[in-house]
Amino acid sequence: SQQGEEDPQALSIQEGENATMNCSYKTSINNLQWYRQNSGRGLVHLILIRSNEREKHSGRLRVTLDTSKKSSSLLITASRAADTASYFCATDEYGNKLVFGAGTILRVKS
Amino acid sequence: DTAVSQTPKYLVTQMGNDKSIKCEQNLGHDTMYWYKQDSKKFLKIMFSYNNKELIINETVPNRFSPKSPDKAHLNLHINSLELGDSAVYFCASSGGYGSPQHFGDGTRLSIL
């Protein structure tokens, strides 16, 4: 079953602008992860946030988690053309698998 | 060195044929996965193995048979290929459930 729903489905911004993507999920989770997928490549893990954390940073990435609203957001600051990719959230449901959202396609125009 | 490698990268074949995809990881992980990504980019888990033991089988047709000869390898064999099997198949590995997963670059399967 698909757990996460991402919003927006597609986002187009200018280089230097910030990009925000949102993810909503339905059940209790152990952690939530964000991945990037460049065209024709596999997914690359970006950041993991545990259910008892509210915010996490990694370089130009900032992830927030609101377990009461069952939602997360990924902020990419000062975007670059190389950030053009699809971004997926994935939830670990205290089980033995990750469930991926449908993804947000980000296009950064130079 | 490529952490998770899968072969072939492209597979074009006729309906009804049998084909295999191979996956190897050099990360020392105990857990490996197969995912299917459809044309809308939706990624769905098919199988998961932990230390050569099948843990997850997500209602995949039994035409799909995974095999793990050792914990560094997880192959996928598909019998009697159907048009609906056209997709990109990804292998991944992780250090345990809930840990970040490392993906191969995918095998694009096209059924004619």
| Number of H/I helices of chain B | 0
The total of helices of chain A stands at 0
Low-confidence stretches of chain A: none
The total count of strands of chain A amounts to 11
Shape of chain B: globular
Rounded to an integer in angstroms, the radius of gyration calculated over CA atoms of chain B is: 13 Å
Uncertain ranges of chain B: none
Largest interface: which pair? A-B, 23 and 24 residues
Largest sheet of chain A: 6 strands, mixed
Summed over residues and divided by their number, the pLDDT of chain B gives a mean of 94
Helix content, binned percent of chain B: under 10%
Q: What sequence of helices (H) and strands (E) makes up the elements of chain B?
A: EEEEEEEEEEE
Report, as a whole number of angstroms, the end-to-end distance of chain B. 34 Å
Percent helix of chain A, as a range, is under 10%
Q: How would you state the average pLDDT of chain A, rounded? A: 93
Largest sheet, strands/sense/barrel of chain B = 7 strands, mixed
Query: Per DSSP, what share of the residues of chain A sits in E-state strands of 2 or more residues?
Result: over 45%
Defining traits:
heterodimer; A: 110 residues; mainly beta; six-stranded mixed β-sheet; five-stranded antiparallel β-sheet; globular; B: 112 residues; seven-stranded mixed β-sheet; four-stranded antiparallel β-sheet; 0% helix
